[in-house]
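Task 17 of the worksheet. Students: predict the tertiary structure of the chain below and write it out as structure tokens. Keep your answer in the requested format; marks are given for formatting as well as content.
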Amino acid sequence: MSDSFYEKLPNDLLIRFYVEIKKNIETGSLTNELDTELKMIKAVTQKRNINLLNLNYNVLNT
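Model answer:
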């Protein structure tokens, strides 16, 4: 299986994609159909041992 788009991204950009998509879903700018995208990003972050819960707060407050 080939690498997904998200697997090719550096950690900082991957995290920003996650936060931006999640924020836009919560505000209604994007549909919940993008939950699939979030799941793909989460899978990559888990492989890289990135904790999104801690990073969401830090990225949003910078």
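Marker's comment: The chain has a mean pLDDT of 83. The chain has three helices and no strands.
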